[in-house]
Write a structure and sequence with these properties.
30s ribosomal protein s13, domain 2, 6 helices
Length: 124
């Protein structure tokens, strides 16, 4: 099992897909990394040589912000918004959707499970 950027990537998957297990790398960046290193797109992780794994690791460390550094940067950005007291920061602080979604219905992911309101029955 190859370990890149502190993440064990699955050995049976194609390298293109396995790289997306790293936080901060999606399909486009994975393809870009593979082109930089010069690995064919259909290669699987268990077929990689140690040299190729090292080259992938070096490219990611040099050119991309991933995993811990990226998570830390995002957390700092959110904290900055909250400290400023801007609208987006207030939405983060209250645990509500930040990007203008409706909250009258839906938004259950951010708001948590629905809580019953005592004495509020549907009028018949």
């Amino acid at each position: 099992m190859a370990r890149i950027a502190g993440v064990n990537i699955p050995t049976q998957k194609r390298v293109l897909i396995a790289l997306t297990y790293i936080h901060g790398i999606g399909n486009a960046k994975a393809k870009e990394i593979m082109e930089k290193v010069g690995i064919p797109l259909d290669r699987r992780v268990h077929q990689l040589t140690d040299d190729e794994v090292v080259r992938i690791r070096e490219v990611i460390d040099r050119d991309y912000r991933v995993e811990g550094d990226l998570r830390r940067e995002v957390a700092i950005n959110i904290k900055r918004l909250m400290d400023l007291g801007c609208y987006r920061g207030l939405r983060h602080r209250k645990g509500l959707p930040v990007r203008g979604q409706r909250t009258h219905t839906n938004a259950r992911t951010r708001k948590g499970p629905a809580k019953a309101i005592a004495g509020k029955k549907k009028a018949v």
